[in-house]
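Record type: monomer structure entry
Structure origin: computed from sequence
Chain ID: A
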Amino acid sequence: MTALERFIVSDGSTHADAARTVRLTLRTVQGSVDRYETDIPVASADWPPDVISAAEVLRGVAARTGRVERGGYAQTGIVAYADDQVWSAFMEFAPWAYDATVWNSAGDDIVSLSDEAQSIVIRVNHPQYDTIAAALGNASLRSTSIQ
């Protein structure tokens, strides 16, 4: 397996920028994904229709395998990766989650998102880094010493 390095992603100040960054990152690491999880906060008036639809798919997963609270907050629990409707919903919704994590088969957290993508930490190999850096610019990826 190729060595992984951890980066903090900083890509602009708008949520739209962060959402694009998250989706780019998830597409880039998709071939390495083994499992993932997310929470689903109560829907907000500023969520686009596609995000609301994705949240409903994930809420259905939470009802079967995770946890749904009375107020509407939900957690999917850990979901095994498959290139299906659930993964597509995760990719659409992840930038609106308070917490979302993606792991590879070795158990490395390769994408970690917090607070509606205000915090984006990734662990990628060099080809994945090159793909992300080409789209975002090297200045947007800061290496960390977190192991």
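Annotation 1: The chain has four helices and nine strands.
Annotation 2: Helices lie at 15-29, 49-65, 85-93, 126-136.
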